[in-house]
Design goal:
Blueprint: H1 5-16, H2 23-40, H3 44-55, H4 64-67, H5 76-104, H6 114-124, E1 131-134, E2 142-144, E3 149-152, H7 154-157, H8 162-179, H9 183-211, H10 217-254, H11 260-301
Parallel strand pairs: 1-3
Antiparallel strand pairs: 2-3
Helix pairs in contact: 1-3, 2-3, 5-11, 6-8, 8-10, 8-11, 9-10, 10-11
């Protein structure tokens, strides 16, 4: 089987610039890639890995961290840090999903579903104007302060597991924050309009800034400012998420919804969920710093 650096580089280049977004198009592209791999006697596991990886990091949906890879003459240190945080993020995400799957198979002694737990926690906190609804999507659970709804995924809404109880209590923690005017939640909500604007522009401005960094570094500065808004949002999200978990766990403990060993598992599940926000915030800060260093280096060369 062939697996030289030339073939690996060629495959990665093709896959990174594969911009089809629909599953059907990506599936067709993967099949064609595998056919080519068979013809060239390449390692199919390598092709599958690269294809699945780059489905998330194609050009039209590149994160600012990934955009650093297309910058000419990118310093090795920048590449290492970017790869490091991408790897950590993937590891934490995998760990969270594995924990959720594990604790989804552990029933609570109370037998209450995620929906029932959410409704009870809201009532116990004197909140009667928030609805608990089911929404599609795996781990798509969230609280919407605009229409005052606790949105639970099907795996949480109808399940009587430790994982469902932890997630439902966490999302209700956000509802309690809203009802009590928690300052960090209010601050994050005020940033939402600015984040919506910046997130829609940042990838294009940064892309242009990277490609024109030597001739027009001011464009990269504009991208840095836009990215700074999203970074600030991710940092402010940290106390919001940690406090929601704290409120949810405190209620689960006081309401005697689960036994001590079940409570420990619920706490573990929410800890891993919180780590995804920590990694995202730290990675965003590091990426912002990397772009700033690139900009300052380009300006000093002028």
């Amino acid at each position: 089987m062939k697996g030289g650096i030339f073939y690996r580089g060629a495959i990665m280049t093709v896959l990174i610039f594969q911009t089809d977004r629909t599953p059907e198009c990506k599936g067709a592209f993967l099949n064609e890639t595998l056919k080519w791999a068979e013809q060239q006697q390449l390692d199919e596991n390598l092709i599958i890995y690269l294809s699945n990886f780059t489905m998330y990091f194609n050009l039209l949906s590149m994160t600012p961290s990934m955009m650093l890879f297309i910058m000419p003459g990118m310093p090795p240190g920048v590449m290492f840090l970017s790869l490091l945080f991408i790897g950590i993020s993937m590891l934490v995400s995998w760990r969270l999903k594995s924990k959720f799957k594990e604790y989804s198979e552990v029933p609570t002694s109370s037998g209450m579903t995620g929906k029932q737990i959410a409704e009870k926690m809201l009532r116990d906190n004197g909140i009667y104007d928030v609805q608990v609804v089911s929404v599609d999507g795996f781990l798509s659970d969230h609280y919407n302060p605009a229409n005052k709804t606790v949105n639970l995924s099907p795996e949480v809404y109808s399940s009587a597991s430790v994982a469902a109880a932890a997630v439902a209590a966490h999302e209700c923690g956000h509802a309690v924050q809203h009802a009590t005017s928690y300052r960090w939640l209010a601050m994050r909500s005020k940033l939402v309009p600015a984040v919506q604007i910046s997130s829609g522009l940042v990838q294009w401005v940064l892309l242009g800034g990277i490609l024109l960094v030597n001739g027009f570094p001011a464009l990269l500065l504009g991208g840095i400012i836009l990215f700074g808004v999203t970074t600030l949002f991710s940092v402010i999200t940290l106390p919001v998420e940690f406090d929601a978990s704290r409120r949810g766990l405190a209620w689960l403990n006081s309401a005697a919804i689960m036994r001590p060993q079940e409570f420990t598992k619920a706490k573990d599940a929410l800890w891993w969920a919180a780590m995804t926000y920590v990694v995202a915030a730290v990675a965003s800060i590091v990426t912002l710093f990397q772009y700033l260093m690139i900009y300052l280096g380009a300006r000093n060369r002028d």
